[in-house]
Amino acid sequence: MEEAELEVKQSQSTPIGTLRLDLSFVFGKMHIAQPLLQFAAQYPQLNLNVSFNDRLIDLIEEGVDATVRIGISSDSSLIMHHLATAHYITCASPQYLVQYGMPTRPTELLQHRCVNFIYPQTRREANWKFEQDGKSIDPDVDSYLRFDNSEVILEAVIQGAGVVQLPKFVAAKAIARGDLQPILQAYATQVGLPIAVLYPQKRYLSAKVRVFVEFMRELAAALKRDDIID
């Protein structure tokens, strides 16, 4: 009874205490970390304990209040609020395209220098996927550079290392600066991963989690307006 009464009070009160967050590593660093400082200033009675990683954790076991993840979650013990979709985009630096030419079809990527992502858990390369007129096109890309970190890949491609297929939220700012140029835009990428905020199921939603969910909704709306996520 005391625990239930405490949950009710916390759900109705001003956000106080410690909010423990686990944020998707690259998306969190690039697009959540800076706005989170404004969130902290808005709620001075709230202490933030934030981790940036892509490790799948048990929120209840590790005492985490909420997480922002990219991808599908099968954990039925969590409440999920869908925020947006992370689509992929194929691009290269202007200097690379001057030197090696502009590919006009996905199959032409076989003649280009490609940079690819390796999944840390499996050490397997990401598959590049395209679609045109409802038909799937899956070129067997032969990458010569492979990294398990999207930020390292981004910097390498900006420096002219080759062609890459990255989440749009990783490449968007570089594209806006002119450091990268989208290519093969007539061929939509099939990959689209959900971006969501998740938290453990409880009878009452605490004030601190409630305001964080609202913060993420507003942030996602702003990122959509800037064409960083969809």
Description:
This protein is α/β, with parallel strands linked by helices. 34% of the residues lie in helices and 28% in strands. It has seven helices and eleven strands. The strands form three sheets. Strands 1, 2, 3, 4, 9, 10 and 11 form a seven-stranded mixed β-sheet that branches. It has a two-stranded parallel ribbon with strand order 5-8. It has a two-stranded antiparallel sheet with strand order 6-7. Strand 6 and strand 7 form a beta hairpin. Helix 2 crosses helix 7. The N terminus is likely disordered.
Helix-strand string: HEHEHEEHEEEEHEHEEH
Strand content: 25-35%
**Termini separation (Å)?**
43 Å
Number of strands: 11
CA-atom Rg in angstroms: 20 Å
Count of DSSP H/I helices: 7
What general form does the structure show? elongated
Question: Helix amount, in percent?
Answer: 25-40%
The structural class is alpha/beta
Largest sheet: 7 strands, mixed
Mean pLDDT: 88
Unreliable stretches covering 5 or more consecutive residues: 1-8
Which key phrases capture this entry?
230 residues; alpha/beta; seven-stranded mixed sheet; two-stranded parallel sheet; 34% helix; elongated
Summed up:
It is built from 7 helices and 11 strands.
Task: Draw up the topology in text.
Layout lengths: L1 H11 L4 E7 L1 H18 L3 E7 L6 H4 L3 E5 L7 E15 L1 H7 L13 E4 L12 E3 L2 E3 L5 E5 L2 H9 L5 E4 H10 L3 E2 L9 E9 L6 H19 L5
Parallel strand pairs: 1-2, 1-3, 5-8
Antiparallel strand pairs: 3-11, 4-9, 4-10, 4-11, 6-7
Helix pairs in contact: 2-7
